Amino acid sequence: MSGKKQQTPLQMAAMVSAMGFEIFAFIIIGALAGKYLDGRFGSSHLWLPLCAVAGFLFGLFSCYYTLKSFLKD
Predict the structure, then answer these.
(1) Residue 51 domain-assigned?
(2) Count of domains in the chain?
(3) What is the rounded CA–CA span in Å between residue 9 and residue 16?
(4) pTM of the model
């Protein structure tokens, strides 16, 4: 037998929902930061999409590390 512990469907569902929340949270934080920067510097919708995309990318990196740690167990 392999030394890995079998993951239950409930654990997999929890991991997928955690990854979805991570992406969502990073996008929202990025969008709020972008809106703040747009208001601070008086730019018209320059920072909002840039920070939202950056939040999405940070969310993907976070999901990668979450998945990596999940599969490591």
Answers:
(1) yes
(2) 1
(3) 11
(4) 0.84
Residue 62's H or E segment, with its range, is helix 47-72
DSSP 1: -
In this predicted structure, what is the pLDDT of residue 72? 84
Rounded distance, CA 56 to CA 73, Å?
26
Q: Is residue 2 a part of any domain in this protein?
A: no
Average pLDDT for runs of 10 along the chain of length 73: 72 92 97 96 93 97 92 77
Q: Is residue 49 part of a domain?
A: yes
The range of the structural domain enclosing residue 68 comes to 11-72
The terminus-to-terminus CA distance of the chain in angstroms comes to 16
